[in-house]
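Quick start: what a row looks like.
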Amino acid sequence: MKLLLHIGAGKCGSTAIQSYLSTNVEALRRIGVLVPGTELDLQSPMHGQQAFFYQSLVTQYNTHFLQRQDALPGSASLLREKMLSLKDIMSREGAHTLVLSAENLSNESAFTDLFSFCLDEFDCEIVLYIRRQDDYLISAWTQWYLKLYDNFEDYINSHLLIDANWLALAEPWRKVFGAERMKVRLYDREKLFGSDVVTDFVQATGLPDEDCVYETGAAVNPSVNDTVAELASQVKDVFSSIHDGEFYNVMSEMIGPRALKRDSRSSIASLEERLRIYVAYAPSNAEVQRLYFPDQDLAQPLFQPPSADEVLCLSSEERMRRQIALLTRAVFAAGKKLQAHGL
């Protein structure tokens, strides 16, 4: 039996892959592919991922060893129990593949210890998507870190060579499962099968897809535009945590698609900032290429360097004009809603 373990990374198409798995739970099960629910069973909601369940396991696991206890933590026993139960179901149903997905699995090395027993129970394959670090960091800033740092430069100065360090992130999995069991894919439209991460995931892993529904090209987890992000960075007090997306939800509800990113270029970072990030990660990216992309020409870099075509250069006056225009639309939309309710 095969265990297909999609470990992320975050901001690399995980939501789209999980949406596909969730949408096609029953279709996949009919052709021998089991996708469990959020609690790693078949009774909990089928969202195509188990991120919160795994996070609770690893938190308990880390706490156990910080307290220097000798016995195997309950989190490891619970995971083994859940996985063997799923394996038993697969045996009864004649299923051939178990698919687990959670982008946080690539965040902590303790996950590899928790899942190491699977080598004795399954034919394991680890799937990891990676992207050029400047793109990742801009996306991570927009979704999470603008709520913590005053500006993008402060965030980079704090997280450079830590976030999106694909070599360090993949190493615990390589040590336990071996590079031969790892499938590292580039989250790059030009490199993906069908220019789509879901199509790429299915094709690269060899998943059967008979009667499965695709939403190719659909923005499952769309990004807000740079103007909304800049406004959000000025009102950090409205966020309860870095994972609080209510501000973005409200802005999207008020002004619709205009709140979403439509330009492939970004004004968050200058070309000089992007190149600084690219150069900083170049040595580790070269090692990633050597370990996980042996068929590539090593004379060529894993990622092509950033170009001016990816940067949207705006003057401070143009940034202000865009912010005022967006806020005016939001106020107008709010007024219309009030009128509609007779207020």
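That is the whole record. The chain has a mean pLDDT of 93. Residues 226-340 form one domain.
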